Amino acid sequence: MYEKIQETASWLKERMTTSPKTAIILGTGLGQLASEITDSYEFSYADIPNFPVSTVEGHAGKLIFGKLGGKDIVAMEGRFHFYEGYSMKEVTFPERIMYELGIKTLFVSNASGGMNPSFKIGDLMIINDHINFFPEHPLHGPNFPTGPRFPDMHEAYDHQLIKLADEIAQEKGIEVKHGVYVGVQGPTFETPAEYRMYRILGGDAVGMSTVPEVIVARHCGIKVFGISVITDLGGFDVPVEVSHEEVQKAANEAQPRMTEIFREIIRRSE
């Protein structure tokens, strides 16, 4: 695996004309942020050696380089999921590449189901912490030399970036929530009983991604900031059916607010 990482990183370095320190992962229905990237050039996942390929609707499958907030960035338009049949090593392959390319900060976004009674569809939830319910751990197996065998996770999501995001949201008049993201394997949406269980355990939102990416990023010493877009609600007295199309629609409508926060954090960060 390490040889494949080196091969892929070298292939990209030979073709890169920028030097990004920031990476962004765009989740389901959140690809419009890519249109905000200026001076861009891109590579299809299918053309990048050893790179997995997105199979989910709403994930374009492109690695985009350019500028956002006046800074060089790289954005993943589409991510990889455990439920697609990929191993955790494949799901988190891009984060290993990010480290090799010199990325210092990772922004993650996702569409998720809200379990907190104060949430409504379209809310932005800044992720304070997560609970890992995936059946396979992304650091399982021989330890990569990018971090310790037993990495500390007390600050998986960077406190300073969260504070800055709150300041920006207040300035811009953007309402944000805070909460704990529960990562599950999917691909089924949760039953009402599962929603209630995750809520009892301390979760505010649940989704099928993000947690493995964050674990590997932190193992590599990359700082992380995350936002969940609440695209559906569950676990309440009245059952709410949900479809992938409805999730995409809700995420799409929340994109401008999320993009504004991401752009301003990048602009104001070193």
Automatic annotation (TrEMBL):
Q: What is its EC number?
A: 2.4.2.1
Gene3D superfamilies hit by this protein: Nucleoside phosphorylase domain
- A GO-annotated cellular component: cytoplasm
Pfam families, alphabetically?
Answer: PNP_UDP_1
For this UniProt entry, the molecular function terms from Gene Ontology, in alphabetical order, are: purine-nucleoside phosphorylase activity
A biological-process GO annotation: nucleoside metabolic process
| Alphabetized PANTHER family for the sequence | METHYLTHIOADENOSINE/PURINE NUCLEOSIDE PHOSPHORYLASE, PURINE NUCLEOSIDE PHOSPHORYLASE-RELATED
Protein name according to UniProt? Purine nucleoside phosphorylase
- Phylogenetic lineage: Bacteria, Pseudomonadati, Bacteroidota, Bacteroidia, Bacteroidales
